[in-house]
């Protein structure tokens, strides 16, 4: 779901501070020598005013680096797959989007690292690029950044990408488990009775008066108590239930989206599509592609990486978890 206080976002924030995730983050950096950042989705960080990228080439370079990061994130979310890209300094980063219940909540950001040595030809090419960005006086900073950045072989870069994808899937599964646990722990006796009643009725039309009667309350009192316990009206709650059912049914690739809508209790396809997009920030078809196992994805190198050989940047995120290893 796309609001700032969504359960999915809260699950992400809890994950990145957990001991188990921190251990895996450290293990990745120790094994590869590449710094790994667990960054929140920019849509949240920008809304909070906490999105900040500090460029490795000093003052004003952060703006160019931030632009590259946002472009990479956008591509990764659209493709639901990792993206490898270059930053203005010519160093490499790999970004792996993480989705919880279909919502993009954060990314694994590995780098910077180099794939080639900084020879004279490459230095001249990169300085030409920096000149066009108004950073033509940063030659010494550029050389310093390359000097203190780990260098990976192509094979090790591919291995790092595989580890990141595995880590991303692990976070998605942990996030989903956290949400399920949270829901079960916060399900009151009232909700349990209502859910049992609705389960008996399945997809048959049920009036608010009938539901209120099942818990021995007047419709007016029921609405007041229900809103206080759930923060939702009964209509909103029913829609959320149906959307959650639909999100489960979309895991079956052989089931048509229209069948999913009707089986989840929706009577109108256009209404289902609008409600689903409002809740998950994407269409049902896009959500299905993001589900684990539906689109394994592969690294999608930015064309600049193959031509120029490497890219990436140092950054700082408020509301992130960062591990780095200094080169010896």
State the gist of this model.
The chain is of the alpha+beta class. It has helices at residues 7-16, 19-32, 42-48, 61-79, 120-132, 139-147, 154-185, 189-201, 208-214, 219-230, 234-249, 257-263, 269-280, 284-290, 303-308, and strands at 36-40, 83-86, 92-100, 103-113, 300-301, 321-323. The chain starts with 6 loop residues before the first helix and ends in a 5-residue tail after the last strand.
Please render the helix and strand layout as text.
Blueprint: H1 7-16, H2 19-32, E1 36-40, H3 42-48, H4 61-79, E2 83-86, E3 92-100, E4 103-113, H5 120-132, H6 139-147, H7 154-185, H8 189-201, H9 208-214, H10 219-230, H11 234-249, H12 257-263, H13 269-280, H14 284-290, E5 300-301, H15 303-308, E6 321-323
Helix pairs in contact: 1-7, 2-7, 9-10
Please, could you describe this protein's structure?
- There is one protein chain.
- A hairpin with a 5-residue loop joins strand 2 and strand 3.
- This protein is elongated.
- The protein has 328 residues and is an alpha+beta fold.
- It has helices spanning 7-16, 19-32, 42-48, 61-79, 120-132, 139-147, 154-185, 189-201, 208-214, 219-230, 234-249, 257-263, 269-280, 284-290, 303-308; strands spanning 36-40, 83-86, 92-100, 103-113, 300-301, 321-323.
- It has 15 helices and six strands.
- The chain starts with 6 loop residues before the first helix and ends in a 5-residue tail after the last strand.
- It is 56% helix and 10% strand.
- Helix 9 (208-214) packs across helix 10 (219-230).
């Amino acid at each position: 779901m796309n609001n700032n206080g969504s359960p999915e976002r809260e699950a992400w924030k809890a994950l990145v501070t957990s001991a188990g995730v921190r251990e895996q983050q450290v293990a990745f950096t120790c094994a590869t020598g590449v710094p790994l950042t667990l960054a929140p989705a920019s849509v949240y960080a920008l809304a909070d005013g906490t999105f900040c990228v500090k460029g490795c080439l000093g003052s004003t370079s952060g703006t160019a680096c931030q632009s590259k990061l946002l472009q990479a994130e956008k591509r990764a979310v659209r493709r639901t797959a990792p993206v490898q890209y270059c930053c203005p300094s010519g160093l490499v980063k790999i970004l792996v989007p993480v989705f919880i219940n279909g919502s993009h909540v954060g990314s694994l950001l590995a780098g910077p690292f180099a794939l080639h040595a900084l020879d004279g030809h490459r230095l001249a090419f990169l300085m030409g690029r920096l000149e066009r960005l108004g950073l033509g006086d940063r030659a010494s900073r550029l050389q310093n950044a390359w000097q203190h950045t780990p260098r990976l072989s192509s094979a090790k870069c591919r291995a790092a990408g595989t580890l990141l994808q595995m880590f991303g899937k692990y976070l998605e599964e942990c996030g989903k488990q956290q949400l399920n646990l949270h829901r079960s722990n916060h399900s009151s006796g009232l909700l349990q009775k209502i859910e049992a009643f609705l389960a008996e009725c399945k997809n048959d039309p049920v009036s608010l008066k009938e539901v209120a009667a099942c818990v021995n309350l007047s419709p007016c009192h029921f609405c007041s108590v229900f809103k206080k316990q759930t923060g939702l009206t009964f209509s909103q709650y029913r829609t959320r239930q149906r959307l959650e059912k639909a999100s489960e049914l979309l895991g079956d690739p052989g089931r048509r989206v229209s069948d999913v809508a009707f089986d989840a209790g929706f009577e109108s396809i256009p209404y289902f599509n609008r409600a689903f997009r409002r809740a998950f920030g994407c269409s049902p078809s896009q959500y299905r592609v993001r589900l684990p196992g539906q689109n394994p994805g592969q690294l999608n190198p930015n064309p600049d990486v193959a031509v120029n050989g490497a890219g990436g940047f140092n950054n700082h995120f408020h509301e992130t978890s960062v591990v780095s290893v200094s080169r010896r």
